[in-house]
Amino acid sequence: MIQVKEKLTLKEQNALLKKCLNKDLDLNLELQKLGLTYDNLRYKDNSNFSTNNIPYKGIEEHKQIHHGVPTISFFSGAGGLDIGFEYAGFQNLASVEINELFCETLQYNFPNQLIIGPPTYSGDLKDREIIAGVLKKKLGIKSPFNGVFHGGPPCQPFSIASNQRFAKKDDNFKRKGFEDKDKGNLLDDYIWFITQFKPKVFLIENVPGLYEIDKGKGLANSLEPLKKLGYKITPPQVVNAADYGVPQKRLRLIIVGSRGKKQFELPNIDIAQTPCFNVFEKPILNHENHITREHTAQSVIRYMELNYGQRDHLGRVDRLNPLLPSKTVIAGGTKGGGRSHLHPYSPRTISVRESARLQSFPDDYVFIGPSARQFTQVGNAVPPLLAFKFASQIYKQIFK
């Protein structure tokens, strides 16, 4: 991280920004001429905080001994759950994903793993028999499966943030939930696979709206076939990723079911939530996915006025407070990338790599595709560290 003493003074910065405005110059090019970057710019308020006594362990420091309990991932996205279970010692056998670009990211990072998705397969769980056949033929999966199924069915029909991207008069503004014929019933497709293969444990991850939208009636109906099979299922629990070591506030609904005598109990939360300063004070050295936006002088002039935690309402971006968990990393729609936050120390939006760190992805994990699509992958993902905490408890409580 560039130290405050390495930044331009406010006098120098104001002169540069004024020059760009008056002469209609490109700020990025002017910075390059001076051998500088956007990280050499500053906010008016660049107060320093003491952060020496706040411990943080990234997922790279959590890796467990490989015990080999097999897992299969459904609706895998960019692989957040896959990473968490792998770091907890599980063996990921296959990932099922419908988005071709997400599949490219999975294949790049898990070259020895079976990816059931484009271009070889549809990856659509509505193609139940075909995908079940691939699992049986390619992996020899049989019922009952002495391992874990984990997945997060697409959450747009249940998500407040997803639907409020539209105007109030737009049909998409209102959450449709289980009434969404395209995505609202994908949970039932996932449950069908659980009934067919009877994994020892299953995990469902989603937005809180999956339970809140109809006070849990639709969810309870979907889970009923699993209860009849003898699964002990945890009550739907909304957890905050920041309570489990992730430097980001992110509310997710978690449900875990298990076959046998043992009922899963959620892992204990941390004593204190994890602030996000480590993400920005740790150097980024030649890591992939760290291209930052080239802001105009007009944008920087607005950003530099913000205090910690304040929002630029024109750009709808927030300056992060380094002593708090980050605000939720947003995925955005399928036609546009996620909306990143503002760096706490430099008046610019954060990069895909910085967003991935807020999500607790390891630094060597690479996201494929254009920058906007990389943001979508990061914002859609389950934080790997959150997945790790649950995966570790699943192993200790059910398999060990």
Task: Explain what this protein looks like in three dimensions.
- The protein is α/β, with parallel strands linked by helices.
- The chain folds into two domains: 155 residues, Alpha-Beta Complex (DNA Methylase, Chain A, domain 2); 228 residues, Vaccinia Virus protein VP39 (Rossmann fold).
- 32% of the residues lie in helices and 12% in strands.
- It is built from 14 helices and ten strands.
- Strands 1, 2, 3, 4, 5, 6, 7 and 8 form an eight-stranded mixed beta sheet that branches.
- A hairpin with a 4-residue loop joins strand 9 and strand 10.
- Helix 1 packs antiparallel against helix 11.
- The longest helix has 16 residues.
- The two termini are 42 Å apart.
- About 2% of the residues have low confidence.
**What is the N-to-C succession of helices and strands?**
HHEHEHEHEHHEHHEEEHHEEHHH
Domain count, please report it: 2
What's the CATH class of the largest domain, please?
Alpha Beta
Morphology call: elongated
Main beta sheet strand tally, sense and closure? 8 strands, mixed
- Provide the CATH architecture of the largest domain: 3-Layer(aba) Sandwich
Estimated helix fraction: 25-40%
How many strand units?
Answer: 10
Q: Approximately what portion of the residues adopt beta-strand conformation?
A: 5-15%
Gyration radius (Cα, Å) is: 22 Å
Which topology of the largest domain does CATH recognise? Rossmann fold
Mean pLDDT score: 89
Termini separation comes to 42 Å
Number of discrete helical segments: 14
